[in-house]
Specification:
- With 77 residues, the protein is an all-alpha fold.
- It is built from one helix and no strands.
């Protein structure tokens, strides 16, 4: 399933848009689980011009891996 958001959004706006979409997927389409999710983001400066993500050493960052939210050991039992 491909999902697209168009136009420039601030991070708080993007969070809200994603939250609303996930709520719709649950309520309207009865989707309860997903795996291997990719999120492609084009960072901008607020005026639509592209910027590049860099770490504290100035190295350009192209990929970030995430393994989901922290899960407490007690959730397994």
């Amino acid at each position: 399933m491909k999902i697209e958001f168009h136009g420039e959004l601030s991070i708080p706006e993007l969070k809200q848009a994603i939250f609303e979409l996930l709520q719709e997927l649950e309520d309207e389409y009865l989707i309860r689980h997903s795996k291997n999710i990719s999120l492609y983001l084009t960072p901008t400066d607020g005026t639509g011009d592209r910027i590049y993500c860099k770490n504290r050493y100035g190295k350009k960052i192209d990929n970030i891996k995430c393994y989901g939210p922290y899960r407490s050991v007690t959730e397994k039992y």
